[in-house]
Amino acid sequence: DRDRRPRPGQFAERHDRVAPRERILFAGDILVRSPLPYVGASWVLKDHGYTRAVRELMEAALVRVEAMVRAGRTLAQVQDELTLDDIRARVPEWNGPAVTEEDWTYTRRTLAERAFVGLRGQGGL
């Protein structure tokens, strides 16, 4: 099937589509770049550099939050203590004038919260 809808639960939006033969994902709001993830509209990406950066950011957040949860940290402590500046440093758009420190802090704290809730509520920790 050339253009198909992903199974329910796979994606956030009912309009998301996959064209597997062409290796194209129409992801809607799954992958947003403005220039930080999750804070604005997205556009067509010509390669997977940004996709990989977002994946690295999410994976780092999850691994680091999991370590803090296992150490007994509260949500507020996790949000205050999570650092992702090493990941941020590798993505020029996340360091430019379009990204205020307030925007980065909001993104980091939101990732911390979502990872914490996922680990505590769905991950079984």
Q: What percentage of residues falls in helices of 4 or more residues?
A: 40-55%
Helix and strand pattern = EEHHHH
Total strand segments: 2
Give the C-alpha Rg. 16 Å
Residue fraction in strands: under 5%
Which descriptor suits the 3D outline? globular
Number of helices: 4
- The strands making up the biggest β-sheet line up spatially as 1-2
Uncertain spans, ≥5 residues at pLDDT below 50? Answer: 1-14
Structural class: mainly alpha
Distance between the termini: 39 Å
Give an account of the 3D structure.
The radius of gyration is 16 Å and the shape is globular. The protein has helices at 49-70, 75-81, 85-88, 101-122; strands spanning 17-19, 24-26. Strands 1-2 form a two-stranded antiparallel ribbon. Helix 1 packs across helix 4 (101-122) and helix 2 packs across helix 4. By secondary structure, the chain is mainly alpha-helical. A hairpin with a 4-residue loop joins strand 1 and strand 2. It starts with 16 loop residues before the first strand and ends with a helix. The longest helix is centred in the middle third of the chain and has 22 residues, at 49-70. It is built from 4 helices and 2 strands; from the N terminus they run ββαααα.
Give the structure's gist in a few sentences.
This protein has 125 residues and is mainly α.
Looking at this protein, list some descriptive labels:
4 helices; disordered N terminus; mainly alpha; 5% strand; 125 residues
